[in-house]
Amino acid sequence: MIVLHATIAILAVVLLIIVLKVDPVISLVTGSLYLGLAAGLGFEGTVTAIVDGFGGIMAEVGLLIGFGVLMGSLLFAMQALQRLVRLLLTVLGATRLPYAMAAVMTTLFPSIYVDVQLVLASPLARSAAPQLGRNGLGLMGGAITAGILVGYVFVVPGLGTISIAGLLDIPLATMLGFGLLIGPLTAVLTVFVYSQLLKLGFWNPEGDEHASEALLEAEALADEHAEELAGGGHRSVPSLFVSLLPVLVPLALIAFGAIAEAAGFSTPFIAFLGNPVLALFLGLVGAYALAKTSIGNTLTDEAMSKGFDTTGQILLITGVGGSLGAVIAATDLEQVLGDLFSAEAGAPVVVSILLAWLIAAVLHLAIGSISVAAITAAGIIGPIMGQLDAPTVIIGLAIGAGALFALQVNSNFFWMFQTLLGVSTRGALKALTFVTALASVIALPLIIGLSFVV
Q1: SS3 for 387?
Q2: Distance from CA of residue 434 to its chain's centroid?
Q3: Best CA proximity match to 125, nearest among 202, 219, 190, 11
């Protein structure tokens, strides 16, 4: 019954938001209350899970979101992101930009926490979208979805990838090699297929794009600043490279910390500098100092004010998204799935791959966390790995592909994506939920094909 109740709760949230136009915060809390009570958590247990879920997400990503949004607002006000987009478009051309972003983010940035990647990439995606035509925002949204999340489950040191490798005793070097074969190819193919669907009318800007007033006002303010700067009313902005240092330095610190930990030479000081919260805070301080010295106190303060407005909205929706996932995690769904699939041990290779994919996909649909789904699926399959006639690394990749499937409303990432990209709930279901489902399905035959040559 718990599987049925979890399905009802998730469908109810989607229908409340899309059909009845109920605010996402109210819809998510309603779904959480239903599931907790229907699953037998009781009145106190349900409310406790909701509160703990909200608090847990805030502890995990609250400061990251706040620092990242404020930094993005300052960089936008200094025209740094807009100048970067113009440079990328000049070098790559509009048609290549989404593919380049997907491939680079999948290959080079998995060491960066996915929420941090989203916070840093979304202003760039919004800035580039108008150059790509009517479907530009949908295409760029799908590109950063594929770039961030495919790398997360396939490429070391993505958290999902490392978790799977550790639980299944797969050497990281082996996981890295196979992941670099599957990950970038999956991301690029996903963007290609998705772009073809967009050409057929899959994206509708009128219904799929819905930026918050705070986000629109922040961008309008930045455009006004750009005109003022162009008119010579303020000191000139720094060079593009200097303007991007508040982003590049945190990325370098986080990546170095992850590499040091994986290679075994990390120290408490290196771990301190590589902590995403500290790294983004240093980036924020750098952006603030650059803005003060280039665009002046007034424009800097206005950009910070708009950033605070946007942050509050994102934090509330993100938090209640975490509440639904916490309520689901408090049920016995994991045990139900473990009992359901353990009887399938001893299956042929292809069946084993499909089984691993299915377990992880069902867990992700229910729990709303890619990493938790991957960890739980690996925990379920690990004890029976010896009975499966398939290489362990292949099963690990299949788990990663399944855990990627259809990220949706019970994930805090979904609500961050919707707000930061300036799309409606329906738009997020297309550019995020559909794209992750597409990437998950595209990866599956690639993994099956790879199993025949391993």
Answers
A1: helix
A2: 13
A3: 219
Query: Cβ(31)–Cβ(12) under 8 Å?
Result: yes
Q: Mention every residue, 6+ apart, whose C-beta is less than 8 A from residue 61.
A: 115, 318, 412, 416
Q: What are phi and psi of 105, to 5 degrees?
A: -65, -35
Which residues, in sequence order, are CB contacts of 372 under 8 Å at separation 6+? 325, 329, 363
State pLDDT tens for residues 348-406.
788 889 989 998 998 888 777 788 788 778 877 776 777 677 899 999 999 999 999 99
Three-class SS of 154-186: HCCCCHHHHHHHHHCCCCHHHHHHHHHHHHHHH
Q: Where are the domains of the chain?
A: 1-218+240-451
Q: Which amino acid is at 153?
A: V
Contacts 24+ apart (CB under 8 A), 41-49: 41/327, 41/330, 41/331, 45/330, 46/327, 49/323, 49/326, 49/327, 49/329, 49/330
Query: What are the residue ranges in the chain where pLDDT is below 50?
Result: 233-234
Do residues 117 and 413 make contact, with C-beta atoms less than 8 angstroms apart? no
DSSP character string of 248-306: HHHHHHHHHHHHHHHHT---HHHHHHH-HHHHHHHHHHHHHHHHHHHT-HHHHHHHHHH
CA 162 from chain center: how many Å? 17
pTM: 0.71
pLDDT value for 400: 96
Here the tokens at position 357 are 């994919």
Cα separation, 93 vs 83, whole angstroms: 14
Contact by Cβ (8 Å): 369, 325: yes
pLDDT per residue as tens digits for the range 230-253 = 555 445 678 888 988 988 888 788
pLDDT at position 176 is 83
The DSSP secondary-structure symbol of 62 reads I
pLDDT given for residue 82 in this prediction: 72
Q: What DSSP character marks residue 386?
A: G
CA-based radius of gyration for the chain: 22
CA distance between the termini of the chain: 40
Do residues 420 and 144 make contact, with C-beta atoms less than 8 angstroms apart?
A: no
Q: Residue with structure tokens 């209640």? A: 320
